[in-house]
Amino acid sequence: MQRPGPRTTAGRGFAVKFYDILSQESSDIITWTESGQAFQVVDYTRFSEEILLKAVCSF
């Protein structure tokens, strides 16, 4: 069994943070698809200005 390295830990942190974003932000901007297996960006301008910038700055 392989031990998790820094990339695995960082990737997991990103996945958790992105899940939180999807759960907390307005569905007018980003939302889960009906199947719940993917997400959809509804408003690309607001996503890049409000969410993406905030997410990148918090890493």
Automatic annotation (TrEMBL):
- Molecular-function annotations in GO: DNA-binding transcription factor activity; sequence-specific DNA binding
- Which ranges does the record mark as transmembrane? none
Q: Does the keyword Iron apply?
A: no
- Give a single Pfam family match: HSF_DNA-bind
Query: What is the protein named?
Result: N/a
Q: Which segments constitute the HSF-type DNA-binding domain? A: 14-54
Provide the leader sequence positions: none
Q: Does the keyword DNA-binding apply?
A: yes
